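can u do me a favor
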């Protein structure tokens, strides 16, 4: 199983350091990714945990106020990026074209990409066929044959709401996505200690992308230990 934790705008530089040190000592054989805020990016040299960036601008450097580019990521050997997260699509207004060009840039630079897709509630209300159609449109301009790719299905209505998608829903959507996605496929959206067992037992789920429930290192590890 892959366990990816997205801190979003939580944790500081010092609390991230402490978190990584705690989790590093606990984690043995899971594949674990942590996405701290950019201010907390660092090398964390003695850790098996992969550190990724939640976002970056598709540039080496330049005049892009408030953004970070390759040069800043290279300093810490960061080679993993989250692209297409619904908060960047919905709150920060990144459109599919922006997302596809960001994808292309980081693909060309050999990054491991966790690419997020997910439908809003209005689409979900129209049934599974409408959901699949919507999700497939989020692959426009995206090279699904990229071999350093992980896809994360995260229904927007399940993110940060405490209401995860049902096991049946996850199974149905993942099964349909697996027809086009050959890379590992994660589920995300209010994954918690009480739901991890059922979610990780779904054959088509290769891992989880976790927001709020990853913020405490011990609790995140507890989630990884539930089989
Ligand atoms: C996320 O933002 O990727 C996420 C899944 O958040 P949460 O676990 O809080 O729903």
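np, heres the sequence
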């Amino acid at each position: 199983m892959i366990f990816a934790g997205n801190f979003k705008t939580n944790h500081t530089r010092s609390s991230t350091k402490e978190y990584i040190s705690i989790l590093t000592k606990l984690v043995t054989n899971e594949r674990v990714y942590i996405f701290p805020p950019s201010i907390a990016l660092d090398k964390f040299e003695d850790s098996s945990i992969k550190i990724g960036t939640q976002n970056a601008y598709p540039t080496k450097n330049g005049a892009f106020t408030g953004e970070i580019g390759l040069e800043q990521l290279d300093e810490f050997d960061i080679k993993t990026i989250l692209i297409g997260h619904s908060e960047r699509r919905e709150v920060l207004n990144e459109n599919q074209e922006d997302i596809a060009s960001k994808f292309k840039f980081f693909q060309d630079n050999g990054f491991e990409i966790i690419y997020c897709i997910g439908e809003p509630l209005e689409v979900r209300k129209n049934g599974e066929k409408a959901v699949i159609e919507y999700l497939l449109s989020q692959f426009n301009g995206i090279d699904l044959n990229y071999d350093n790719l992980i896809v994360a299905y995260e229904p927007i209505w399940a993110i940060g709401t405490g209401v995860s998608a049902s096991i049946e829903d996850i199974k149905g959507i993942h099964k349909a996505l697996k027809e086009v996605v050959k890379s590992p496929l994660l589920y995300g959206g209010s994954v918690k200690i009480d739901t991890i067992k059922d979610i990780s037992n779904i054959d088509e789920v290769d891992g989880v992308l976790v927001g709020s429930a990853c913020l405490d290192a011990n609790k995140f590890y507890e989630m990884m230990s539930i089989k």
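Residues 6, 154, 159-160, 188-191, 209-213 surround phosphoenolpyruvate (CB under 6 Å). hope that helps!!
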